[in-house]
Each structure stands twice: as C-alpha cells, then as structure tokens.
Amino acid sequence: MAGPVSSRRVRRRGLEATILLVVVAVVAGVALSAGATPHRHPGGQRRVAERTRQVTPQPPMPPTTRGPGRLFTVYFYSAALHRRADYLVYLPAGYTPSRRLPVFYLLHGMPGRPMAFTLNAHTESKLEELIRLHEVRPMILVFPDGRIGGRTATDSEWANTRAGRFESYVVDVVHNVDQRFATLADRRHRAIAGLSAGAYGAANVGLHQVALFGLIQVWSGYFLQTPTGVFARATPAQLSANSPLEYAYAMGPTLKRYPLRIFIYTGTHDSDRFQTPPMAAALRAVGAHVGSAIYRGGHSWNLWSPRVDQMLIMASRFFSSP
Fold this sequence. Notes:
Layout: H1 2-6, E1 21-27, E2 30-35, E3 70-78, E4 83-91, E5 103-107, H2 116-121, H3 123-132, E6 140-144, E7 160-161, E8 164-165, H4 166-180, E9 190-195, H5 197-208, E10 215-219, H6 236-241, H7 244-247, H8 252-257, E11 261-267, H9 276-285, E12 289-295, H10 301-304, H11 308-320
Parallel strand pairs: 5-6, 5-9, 9-10, 10-11, 11-12
Antiparallel strand pairs: 1-2, 3-4, 4-6, 7-8
Helix pairs in contact: 3-11
C-alpha cells in the first residue's frame, strides 16, 4: 500500500485542456454555465472534456408542484461561508409538501460545477425513468456548489480550510433543504455521493458528518490529503484529520452508534485505484458495511455516467431498507 499511495503525494497543477464554456442559463437571476467541466485528481490535475447540450433552466419552484419534476437554484445565507450561497435542487414529478421524501446529495468534481450532473449524466431524467419503472422511490436530488467564490477553475476540496469552510457549508445546505422542502430529515433517508474531488469530499464530509448521512458513495475518489492547494499551509494534524484512510481506523466507537453503509468504486486505469482496497479494508475493520468495485475504464464521465442508474437504485434501496 505504501508505495502506490506515497507516489501520489505531489499534485499536478498544470491545465491539460481548455475549459469550454458553451451555455449560460439563467436560473432565478443567477447565471449557470454549461460546458466542459474539468475534474481534478489527487495525483494531479486532470481535465475531463465533457459532452455539452442545451439546457433549458427552470424558474424558481413554488412550495407545491404536482406537475413535472423541476430543477432550480436555491439561495440562502451560509453561516459557514459568511455569505449568500446557493445550491441546485431537483424536485421529482408530483412533489408535494404532504409527502416527505429522502434526499440524495451529489458533489461535483474540481474544477467543476453543480450542473455537471445534468449536462453529462442526465441524472434527473434517469431518476424519473427509474421512478416510472418502479425501480426507485421518489427522492429529492441536491447539488451543492463547492466552487470558491463561484469560480469554476477552483478547488475547495469540499473541506474546511483558509479558502472557506466548505464542509460546514454542506451541512448548512442539509439544514436549509430540510427547512424548505418536505424531506425525511434523518440519516436513514440521506445519502451523499460525489465524483473525483467530489468523491473525496463525499468520503471526508460523510465520515466527519456520519450523524447526518447513513450512506456514502465514492465515485473515483482518493483518501489521503497532501500539503498543496487549499491545504498548502495545513499542519500535519490538519492533513491527517482530512485523510479518511488515516482517521478511519479510529471510527469504531462512532460507527457503533451510527451504522454506516459505503460503496467505493474506481476505474482500472485510474491512477488512484490503489487507494480503494485499503480504504475499504479500513472501514470494514471498524464495522462499516462496505462495498467496493474496480470497473473497466479511466477517470471520466465514460465511467461515471453509465453507473448513475446503479447508484440511484442503491440509494433508493438504502432509503427503503437501511
């Protein structure tokens, strides 16, 4: 384990491809741009050229809608970031406050944006199709915004650092969602997932906030933090506290109180695939219910998009029988 893991301690910060900005959609007065959403990688900076398509933004939702599902932006004050913040939310078709629903939180990669899940994986339409086929139960999808200052080419690591308290911002989002919408507001009915840097964020935030999330999904993540980027001035203790592979072994007492399910997958050509087996083993050792897989593919939407259905079904089954 030590060889492959330690070889990833230096990050490539060069840009390997040009970010394509192709669509600007105005949702509730804020521009959301759609296009090439690059995703960073702990062993270095990777640019993943994403498919683009025209997206028609939806206006802000009223509290009740019995029509088609709607995607829109919510604005709120984040105490963690000390500013007005936002997130995307998708309410499924037939949403009504009289029926409370589970919530699935999805963290984008870095650099990246919340719209990546819409533009590249058609996550909302896949959810609706699975609901129609009775493969999943209706659920609310929430896409937090982990960009520093709203800038796409930034990397917050979804962590609490000098660049901003983005882990705590995710917690703010959870509380705001529960206040605004008809949710089943308990960890049995909350899941968190992410891809690339968002996968690291889902693991780190999910394990730190295990009282909030009962299910974690890690799509091509990493589990060791390095003193670069927003962690450039971090102390060894801060790096360790944000390296799930290091602190997981001490989580036994916590997981006895808060039983956890976690699924980790990566690609056969992902340079950080070596971190997946030891992370899965560490969590199993302290009592988590762990599933893991290494699928054929690299670090791109070609790996992630075809598995969105599988991840939605997994989340739905957890919500129904945790």
